[in-house]
UniProtKB/TrEMBL annotation:
PANTHER family: DEUTEROSOME ASSEMBLY PROTEIN 1, SARCOMA ANTIGEN NY-SAR-24/CYTOSKELETAL PROTEIN SOJO
Lyase is among the record's keywords: no
Principal localisation: cytoplasm
Keywords from the UniProt entry: Coiled coil, Cytoplasm
Gene Ontology CC terms: centriole; cytoplasm; deuterosome
Record-given protein name: Deuterosome assembly protein 1
Lineage, highest ranks first: Eukaryota, Metazoa, Chordata, Craniata, Vertebrata
Gene for this chain: DEUP1
Any GO BP annotation: centriole replication
Length: 169
């Protein structure tokens, strides 16, 4: 019986060793399975990352295209702005020239008006002087006329007296 026990024990030990090897292999397989799973997850992440990179690259290319279009548009707008600035500058220069011309013209007209005012003042002074002279001459002529009328009246009176005296003589 001991031999049977010994045989069974050997058999159990052999099966136990086999069982441990199977468990060890299971653990190794499980570890490999985890590694494979991790590798698969990493590949999926890489694939997602690559897909995301492709999308980001496409978005970046789209943004670059948009930036190029914006740069062209900005350049066009800058050219338009320069044209407008140049036009505005020419208009301002023209306006300044016109203002200077008008200032000069106003200055000339003001000077001419001042000269005319001086001339008018001189004429008014002369007219006032002539008016006084005319008044004086009129007064003199009125006095002379009054004297002449008085003399004329005296002459008639004397003539009439003379005629009367002649008749009496």
């Amino acid at each position: 019986m001991e031999a049977g026990f010994s045989e069974m024990r050997n058999e159990l030990q052999s099966r136990d060793a086999l069982w441990r090897r199977i468990q060890l292999e299971c653990q190794q397989l499980h570890t490999e399975l985890l590694k494979i799973s991790e590798y698969k997850d990493m590949q999926e992440i890489q694939i997602k990352h690559q897909s995301s990179c492709v999308q980001l690259t496409e978005q970046l290319e789209n943004k670059n295209t948009e930036l190029l279009l914006l740069a062209q548009s900005q350049e066009h707008q800058r050219e338009e702005l320069n044209k407008i600035r140049n036009h505005l500058y020419r208009e301002e220069q023209s306006h300044r020239s016109e203002q200077e011309r008008l200032k000069t013209e106003i200055s000339d007209l003001t000077e001419e008006l001042h000269q005319k005012e001086i001339t008018i003042a001189t004429i008014m002074e002369k007219a006032s002087l002539l008016e006084r002279q005319l008044k004086m001459e009129l007064e003199i002529k009125d006095k002379l006329l009054a004297k002449q009328q008085l003399l004329d009246f005296r002459y008639r009176v004397i003539k009439s007296e003379n005629t009367h005296l002649k008749e009496m003589v």
